[in-house]
Design brief:
Length: 284
């Protein structure tokens, strides 16, 4: 199933995509995406019943899709997780790490799948298409072979980055967390529809020009290893977001470097999930 949050006539709702439209889930008993995720399979069964009930669907053209999860507890992202992107990072002087490289995107950075990206105080605005996983059943000290059971679903993420601010300090946090620098969506595809998250083609376009094209099968540390590593230290809770890394082709790695400018349109897409498209707004 494809689960959405959307605004219609000024009111925010949960919905499920059916027949190219959106069926409202106001009658599901779940006021938020997080509450639906926390309900586990019984929540999905309820949604499926409503989807099959024949309730009228709104056209996707008549609603404004929002970030499919409103405010997760954590938004974690791994860096340097595709081999050729690692080569780009080498040229920038980023030290190769022995362990998985994790940083936080502050959850206030989240924005909708078609919302504008506000540049903020950076001169080096950049894009990163990534597969993002949404945690379902809480995970603590999970083995790789069990990790799949803790994923509720998947969405497309653009790990928008302010490269100058990213390298102010070694933690990356400042440059990864500007408001509006976390567009996700357009929906959460439940994990039962993604047989293997490590076979998905992903692409990023800037103004229609293909900049990134790769496959999630080329991750250095796959999602199961990521969940095992993170959950060895702390609990991953329902709704937590994990961005699984970006392949080569980012603007900072181009020769000459090419950063996003006001008016540019960035499209991130993953086969089997969907696409998000965000325009860079004027500087305030
Ligand atoms: Mg990234």
């Amino acid at each position: 199933m494809k689960l959405v949050r959307y605004k219609h006539d000024g009111v925010i709702h949960l919905g499920v995509v059916a027949d190219g439209g959106v069926v409202c889930l106001d009658d599901s008993g779940f006021p938020t995406m997080l509450s639906l995720i926390q309900a586990g399979q019984s929540g999905l069964d309820r949604v499926n019943d409503l989807r099959a009930s024949g309730a009228a669907a709104l056209s996707l053209d008549d609603v404004a899709l929002l970030a499919p999860i409103e405010r997760p507890g954590k938004y974690l992202a791994i860096g340097m997780n595709y081999a050729k992107h690692l080569e780009e990072a080498d040229k920038l002087g980023v030290a190769r790490a022995k362990y998985q490289t994790w940083f936080n995107k502050q959850t206030t950075c989240l924005s909708g799948p078609f919302d504008d990206i506000e540049p903020g105080p950076t001169d080096k605005l950049d894009y990163e298409v990534e597969l993002a996983a949404v945690i379902g059943k809480p995970a603590k000290q999970v083995l790789e072979e069990d990790a799949r059971h803790h994923v509720f679903g998947y969405t497309v993420a653009n790990d928008v980055s302010a490269r100058d601010w990213q390298f102010h300090t070694p933690t990356f946090t400042m440059g990864k967390s500007f408001d509006t620098h976390g567009p996700i969506g357009p929906w959460i595809v439940t994990s039962d529809e993604i047989a293997n998250p490590h076979t998905l083609a992903l692409r990023c376009f800037v103004n229609g020009e293909l900049r990134q094209s790769n496959n999630t099968g080329h991750m250095i540390h796959n999602l199961w290893a990521q969940i095992a590593y993170l959950s060895a230290a702390f609990t991953l809770e329902a709704g937590d977001l994990i961005a699984t890394g970006t392949p080569e082709g980012v603007g900072v790695g181009m020769e000459p470097q090419s950063f996003l400018q006001p008016g540019d349109v960035v499209r991130c897409e993953i086969d089997g999930i969907g696409a998000i498209e965000n325009r860079v707004s004027a500087r305030n």
